[in-house]
Amino acid sequence: MLSVNCAAIPRDLMESQLFGHKKGSFTGADSDHVGWFQQAHTGTLFLDEVGEMTLEGQAKLLRILEGHPFLPVGSTKEVNADVRVIAATNKDLTEFVREGRFREDLYYRLSVFELYIPPLRERGGDIERLVDHFLEHFARTHGRPSMTLAPTPVPSCSPTSGPATCGNCGTRSTAPSSWPKVASSSPTTSASGMSALPKASSKPFASTSGNGS
């Protein structure tokens, strides 16, 4: 599976990166580039932050999902790509559709199967399990197998502890390595620094679609 963060691609390069370009098709195109869709042919392409795609890129994506070929930037030869697409975003795409920033037909095409992932602040029961998981990981990584967690930190980062709640553990999994008390020599450590992690985004979205895969 190939993974692409659409938010990390400059908007003026979005189409060329996803769909490819020919040498000389624009300033800086010093050689041909095989786009991500062509590279993922017969496989899976994960489009993270799909809401950041340009409207032109969305139109090409829709054609691919409908089974049509596409033209790389500056090319006169169409390319066929049989790709399974998984798309994700933390934006409200229905709002984007209303604002004209996201194609309605593409939205419904991607929403064939939709998986909503609630933010961690709505999954209070998962916090202790996640803390145990990451504590075990970092204890093993730093050679501290006897390290344990004091009983107070977990309630301090529960959803009921106010605005300072646990953030998205998927993107904050490196935080424990910077906790001063976790790095101490005491076998029982405190991770109260978790309460300072920012909130997770509240509208994650994931969907799968493809043109026959």
Strand order of the largest sheet: 1-2-3-7-4
> What characteristic shape results from the CA principal axes?
elongated
Distance between the termini: 13 Å
What percentage of amino acids are in beta strands?
5-15%
Q: CATH fold name of the largest domain, please?
A: Rossmann fold
Mean pLDDT: 75
CATH superfamily of the largest domain: P-loop containing nucleotide triphosphate hydrolases
Largest sheet: 5 strands, mixed
How much helicity do the residues have? 25-40%
Structural domains: how many: 2
| Rg for CA atoms | 22 Å
What is the overall number of helices? 7
Please supply descriptive tags for the structure shown above.
alpha/beta, single chain, 213 residues, two-stranded parallel ribbon, Rossmann fold, 5-stranded mixed sheet
Describe, in plain words, how this protein is organized in 3D:
The chain has 213 residues and is α/β, with parallel strands linked by helices. It folds into two domains: 2-111, P-loop containing nucleotide triphosphate hydrolases (Rossmann fold), CATH 3.40.50; 120-196. Helices cover 27% and strands 13% of the residues. The protein contains seven helices and seven strands; from the N terminus they run E-H-H-E-H-E-H-H-E-H-E-H-E-E. The chain has helices spanning 14-19, 36-39, 55-65, 93-99, 104-110, 124-141, 153-156; strands at residues 2-5, 44-48, 84-89, 113-115, 148-149, 188-189, 205-210. The strands form two sheets. The protein has a five-stranded mixed sheet with strand order 1-2-3-7-4. The protein has a two-stranded parallel ribbon with strand order 5-6. The chain starts with a strand and ends with a strand.
